[in-house]
Write a structure and sequence with these properties.
The protein has about 300 residues and is an alpha/beta fold. Helices cover about 40% and strands about 15% of the residues. The protein has 9 helices and 13 strands. Helix 1 links the parallel strand 1 and strand 2. The mean pLDDT is about 95.
Length: about 300
């Protein structure tokens, strides 16, 4: 079983001036601990459930580029990108840039998005959800074309929401056949259909019962498009607080997720700036989780 860390908050001791040095230390510690992946949210205001909108939030791609320079082995991605925040071609170009500069360690994380407050606050047009799903599917089609061959596609793209004359992508991504596409969300009619048709990974939040059901739906969607579900990495986002849960309890909880098919558990860590937590992860969590064999779906 793989294990990754998401960093959802940058409200840390020392204030804004300390964010850069602290993020560098956290990234280096996480990479040294053997974590398989590192993630940040694609938000511009802090989200409900984590903090107040006014709390510190970094732009995702810029943060990942910084983290790439402070890590050596962990893969890097947005958990997950909001499709309407960037034009379709920019999604492929940004992910390719991260992949090239990190030596082939990029994920393209993307979804239909939800945060109206930050969109309206900063002036991002936010179409209705159904339109955003249409935009998401066209974006996925475009990035697949841009990751074809040596320099992308010479063919034009004429969609309902995006038009492009030449889907050139140079330099091309190092990851082969392309950076892994991960789609966030568990919507059964639209999101999991897009996962089955276009993605290399899914990310679904919830406990074992929820995940069991969602993975069964994913298996059905894969059958509908003629694809093996084994081609799609199954990830789940969780939270860890060592002030409330021991390392062995965390491992047991993750073992329960692997038993229903989770292959890559990604977690938020309370007080991630406290590097003592990485001693616990290195000693008691990462090796134990890595030894867990996920169940097939």
């Amino acid at each position: 079983m793989k294990i990754g860390l998401q960093i959802p908050s940058f409200t840390w001791p020392g204030g804004d001036a300390a964010i850069g040095p602290t993020l560098a230390r956290v990234t280096e510690a996480a990479d040294a601990a053997g974590l398989d992946s590192l993630w940040v949210m694609d938000h511009f205001f802090q989200i409900r459930g984590v903090g107040r909108p006014e709390e510190a939030m970094l732009e995702g791609w810029s943060a990942l580029a910084f983290m790439a320079a402070h890590s050596n082995t962990a893969t890097l991605g947005l958990m997950v990108g909001g499709v309407h925040y960037r034009q379709a071609g920019l999604w492929a170009k940004a992910a390719t840039t991260l992949d090239v500069l990190s030596g082939g360690r990029a994920y393209l994380g993307i979804g239909a998005a939800w945060n109206e407050e930050e969109s309206h606050g900063l002036g991002f047009p936010m179409p209705p959800l159904g339109v955003r799903f249409e935009m998401l599917e066209e974006t996925l089609q475009i990035v697949h074309q841009m990751w074809q061959g040596e320099h992308g596609s010479e063919a034009a793209f004429d969609g309902k929401h995006y038009q492009a004359e030449r889907l050139l992508n140079s330099p091309q991504a190092i990851s082969k056949p392309h950076p892994r596409i991960i789609i966030g969300g568990g919507g059964e009619q639209k999101t999991l259909r897009l996962v089955a048709q276009y993605a290399d990974a899914c990310n679904i939040f919830g406990g074992p019962d929820v995940l069991t059901h969602k993975f069964e739906v994913l298996r059905q969607r894969c059958a509908e498009v003629g694809r093996s579900p084994d081609e799609i990495e199954r990830t789940s986002l969780q939270s860890v607080d060592f002030g409330r849960e021991s390392a062995s309890q965390v491992v047991d909880r993750f073992r329960g997720l692997a038993a229903v098919g989770v292959q890559h558990v990604i977690f938020n860590l309370a007080d991630v700036w406290d590097l003592r937590h990485f001693d616990t992860l290195t000693r008691d969590v990462v090796p134990a989780v890595r030894a867990i064999e996920p169940t097939a779906i």
